[in-house]
Amino acid sequence: DFSEEAIGRARAEAARRGLRNVTFEIGDAARIDRRAQFDLVTAFDAIHDQRDPAAVLRQIREALRPGGLFLMQDIAASSQLENNMERPMAPFLFAISTMHCMTVSLAAGGAGLGTCWGEELALQMLGEAGFGQSRMESLPHDIMNSWYLSRAV
């Protein structure tokens, strides 16, 4: 994370719990610069907020060992506005997107994908990042999120 405050809190919580097999680093996710070091990378409701989400996805792919898994949770939405009309959370999600997610990215000169970047674009970007296998899953108890499982090949 690039937030010193967030990393400080994470380190303090890990120390409080006696965790010794976890580290937290301050940095830009678009510049991870780790090659084939991880079996699992996770991102929860975060990729759409990034200044350069395509670079972040490429760096995640590079950081995974062959066969490694990227688990990405993001908002359940279609990339096509008209396909979101029946989603019960759509008005709320588009409001959040406009007031926070898009503006955070755009303020940093970024892509401004927003909360409702959508499943179609997410799968396309995962493929472009070099993930050989990606699929999106929905969980019956979670109407808010889509879950993406992408394998490094």
Largest sheet: 4 strands, mixed
Q: Can you identify the CATH class of the largest domain?
A: Alpha Beta
Structural class: alpha+beta
**Which runs of at least 5 residues are low in confidence (pLDDT < 50)?**
none
* Named CATH architecture of the largest domain: 3-Layer(aba) Sandwich
Question: How many distinct helices?
Answer: 4
Instruction: Round the mean pLDDT to the nearest integer and report it.
Output: 94
- Strand line-up in the sheet with most strands: 1-2-4-3
N-to-C series of helices and strands: HEHEHHEE
Helical residue percent?
25-40%
Total tally of structural domains:
2
Strands, total number: 4
The Cα radius of gyration reads: 16 Å
Shape: globular
> Beta-strand level of the residues, as a percent range?
15-25%
CATH superfamily grouping of the largest domain:
Vaccinia Virus protein VP39
- CATH fold node name of the largest domain: Rossmann fold
Distance between the termini: 26 Å
Keywords, separated by commas or semicolons:
single chain; 153 residues; alpha+beta; Rossmann fold; 2 domains; four-stranded mixed beta sheet; 4 helices; 34% helix
Your description of this structure?
There is one protein chain. The chain has two domains: 31 residues, no CATH class; 116 residues, Rossmann fold. With 153 residues, the protein is α+β, with helices and mostly antiparallel strands. Strand 3 and strand 4 form a beta hairpin. The chain has four helices and four strands. The relative contact order is 0.17. The longest helix has 18 residues. A four-stranded mixed beta sheet has the order 1-2-4-3. The model has no long low-confidence stretch (mean pLDDT 94). 34% of the residues lie in helices and 24% in strands.
